[in-house]
């Protein structure tokens, strides 16, 4: 009976892991990210502390996949994911795969200046991987474009608004030539 209970506990742990982690990148998945963002939003709102989000996109990844094929694309995604994960070390911070070639990072208790410093480190670290990208229109190797948004959470404001702000900043970075980060001012309006 004890052995069966242990087997069931192990199976439950494995299911919980599979439900929260992206199989390819070994980062948290979007579902877990959303749950964690809601939790941090409430906590940091109570504590009146900043939260920052960084949305990262691998530049010209579709061209990478078309040229090097999907196996190399998967390997590239994994390498970039692990690079991001290795740079984000504070316990309350989180790196997740947001979809396709997009990643998203929660920086708890981090103001915009701190988030910009992290974004610059992420850009430089991925470039330093020196993964060749002969189809990129901005570099000879794999690079990132990043969008940064920061706010102090409020109860009557949806954390989705911060995601939208970070996404807007990402497109600003892409419009400016990619392989860089951009920041947007985020002053949330109260949702009634």
Structural class label: alpha+beta
Average pLDDT, rounded to a whole number, is: 93
Question: So, the CATH homologous superfamily?
Answer: Reverse transcriptase/Diguanylate cyclase domain
Distance between the termini: 53 Å
Q: State the order of secondary-structure elements, H for helix, E for strand.
A: HHEHHEEHEHE
Strand elements, count:
5
- What CATH calls the topology is Alpha-Beta Plaits
Shape: flat
Report the radius of gyration as a whole number of Å: 18 Å
Poorly predicted runs: none
For the sheet with most strands, the description reads: 5 strands, mixed
CATH architecture: 2-Layer Sandwich
Q: Kindly report the spatial arrangement of strands forming the biggest sheet.
A: 2-3-1-4-5
* Tally of contiguous helical segments: 6
**Count of folded domains:** 1
Which strand-content bin applies to the residues?
A: 15-25%
Name of the CATH first level:
Alpha Beta
The level of helicity is 40-55%
GO molecular function, one term: diguanylate cyclase activity
GO biological process, one term: negative regulation of bacterial-type flagellum-dependent cell motility
Organism: Crocosphaera watsonii WH 8501
Domain GGDEF: 49-186
């Amino acid at each position: 009976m004890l052995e069966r209970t242990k087997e069931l506990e192990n199976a439950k742990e494995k299911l919980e892991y599979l439900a929260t982690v992206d199989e390819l990148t070994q980062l948290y998945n979007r579902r877990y990210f959303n749950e964690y963002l809601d939790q941090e939003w409430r906590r940091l709102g109570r504590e009146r502390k900043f939260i920052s989000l960084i949305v990262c996109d691998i530049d010209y990844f579709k061209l990478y996949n078309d040229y090097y094929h999907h196996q190399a694309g998967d390997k590239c995604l994994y390498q970039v994911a692990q690079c991001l994960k290795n740079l984000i070390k504070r316990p309350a911070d989180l790196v997740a795969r947001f979809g396709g070639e997009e990643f998203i990072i929660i920086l708890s208790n981090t103001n915009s200046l701190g988030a910009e410093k992290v974004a610059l480190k992420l850009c430089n670290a991925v470039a330093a991987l020196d993964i060749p990208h002969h189809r990129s229109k901005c570099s000879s190797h794999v690079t990132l474009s990043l969008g940064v948004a920061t706010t102090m959470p409020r109860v009557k404001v949806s954390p989705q608004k911060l995601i939208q702000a970070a996404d807007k900043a990402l497109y600003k970075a892409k419009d400016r030539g990619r392989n860089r980060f951009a920041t947007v001012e985020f002053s949330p309006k109260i949702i009634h």
